[in-house]
């Protein structure tokens, strides 16, 4: 990790420097502990994803679905990047299998779509989007979600599409008790706001290492792991899902922000409270309805990047403040 990247440890300052102009993509690469050898890749991957998301947003201009397309472009790139715990690079369950979760919400009509505990699915973000746009439901799980994906022709399935040496090694270490099963970082998510102020939030994860088969965290749970609303703004949670779920984290953050404190202070408060009460590593990113951005975490690390129209991309791996 080069020093200049780490020197921007206070993501808050970098975020505060950006103007509150609309047309933005804010990305995270997970709150937790980033393995040293993956830290450079986490910074590069989140910056690349934010740039891809913004490029898509600009390309689509005033199209109704510009912010949906933008978050899909950003998260697809993170899911395809083995440095992250989503898609290729996802962590394994206690049985050495892959079960992934994802959730998406757009503000213009509060439509949501999510999938949970889907085996061997490489691009969970696409299937969550299909649930939102092509089903009458908000959340599909397990085999049913897989059947829906196959029927729609959405999603690529196969162990070889997700498997990485990194995931295998971590699984072996966890199984042999060589390392504590702490919360690794690397879950991913993106929030986009278009020029008209429409918002979309999307998160995707392999969950937590060595989880029980069938375990579902906050990522695909509306209000807990993701939320987007025209009056409140948009937020994404990351870290130990069990700690975020009890607070309905994203909704709670946005409710507090809207009551006057703003997204940055609300994110900081909530992270600190959850961490104080549970000891869990947690983090949030958020965009207020006025285009202000917030990012906070109580964890060893969190990677993030912000691409805003007319500005340089900012991004870093921040360390526990
Ligand atoms: N929140 C995710 C979960 O609990 C994991 C993470 O963000 O690292 O499944």
UniProtKB/TrEMBL annotation:
Keyword RNA-binding set for record: no
InterPro entries: Ntn_hydrolases_N, Peptidase_T2
Annotated substrate binding sites: 215-218, 238-241
GO BP terms: proteolysis
Record-annotated site: Cleavage: 186-187
Pfam families: Asparaginase_2
Annotated GO MF terms: aminopeptidase activity; hydrolase activity, acting on carbon-nitrogen (but not peptide) bonds, in linear amides
Gene Ontology CC terms: cytoplasm
Catalytic residues as annotated in Swiss-Prot or TrEMBL: 187
Keywords: Aminopeptidase, Autocatalytic cleavage, Hydrolase, Protease
This protein's record includes keyword Protease: yes
SUPFAM superfamilies: N-terminal nucleophile aminohydrolases (Ntn hydrolases)
Protein name, as recorded: Isoaspartyl peptidase
Source species: Enhygromyxa salina
